[in-house]
């Protein structure tokens, strides 16, 4: 019995319906490998923002992250329902990334974040809300792993300064259409707290 359109067609359909909100339908295996490369499966739960059709989700599972340690936040209700079917042990939240609450995480504090959100398509104030809300949910040393098709980090410098964050490009992915960059965004170290 057929359950719906194949993943690629579903992704294309959601992109056509709302191209500013659904930016990752073209994410391929090389980008999925690059954005999940630094994820430590033993560190704790992983929060995925905008998993779409689950390309990065499957890469996280391939890295050894337990399905029960995945928290998938997808604003598109159709995609959220498909994710819940595909990953029944994961916690799937059908809401916008900036609206996730600690209560919805069931006491879990993510140790890492993988973001498939097309941040370049969002206004600055929305990017700031998403990033601030995400870090508020995570462990102190958590990082957001964010991809972009643009030439620089998709979180503007003024937002990074306002939230006291730092970004490092961790990968250039030429084997993706279009080519992409991956950034690791972290809180800046608090002066005087670094170990010698």
UniProtKB/TrEMBL annotation:
Q: Which intervals hold domain Ribosomal RNA adenine methylase transferase N-terminal? A: 31-189
- Family matches, as SMART domains: rADc
Q: Any coiled-coil ranges, and where?
A: none
Origin species: Novosphingobium fuchskuhlense
**This chain belongs to which protein, by name?**
Ribosomal RNA adenine methylase transferase N-terminal domain-containing protein
SUPFAM superfamilies with a match to the protein in the record:
S-adenosyl-L-methionine-dependent methyltransferases
- Asked if the keyword Electron transport belongs to this entry, the reply reads no
Keyword hit for tRNA-binding? no
Task: Tell me the GO molecular function terms.
Answer: rRNA (adenine-N6,N6-)-dimethyltransferase activity
Q: Which UniProt keyword terms apply here?
A: Methyltransferase, S-adenosyl-L-methionine, Transferase
């Amino acid at each position: 019995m057929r359950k719906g359109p194949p993943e690629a067609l579903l992704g294309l359909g959601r992109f056509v319906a709302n191209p500013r909100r659904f930016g990752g339908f073209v994410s391929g295996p090389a980008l999925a490998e690059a954005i999940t490369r630094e994820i430590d499966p033993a560190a704790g739960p992983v929060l995925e923002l905008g998993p779409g059709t689950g390309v990065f989700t499957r890469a996280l599972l391939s890295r050894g992250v337990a399905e029960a340690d995945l928290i998938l936040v997808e604003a598109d209700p159709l995609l959220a329902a498909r994710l819940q079917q595909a990953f029944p042990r994961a916690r799937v939240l059908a809401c916008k990334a900036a609206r996730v609450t600690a209560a919805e995480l069931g006491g879990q504090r993510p140790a890492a974040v993988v973001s498939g959100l097309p941040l370049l398509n969002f206004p600055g104030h929305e990017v700031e809300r998403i990033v601030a809300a995400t870090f508020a949910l995570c462990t102190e040393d958590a990082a957001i792993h964010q991809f972009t098709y643009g030439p620089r980090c998709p979180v503007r410098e003024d937002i990074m300064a306002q939230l006291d964050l730092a970004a490092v490009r961790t990968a250039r992915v030429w084997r993706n259409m279009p080519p992409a960059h991956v950034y690791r965004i972290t809180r800046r170290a608090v002066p005087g707290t670094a170990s010698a």
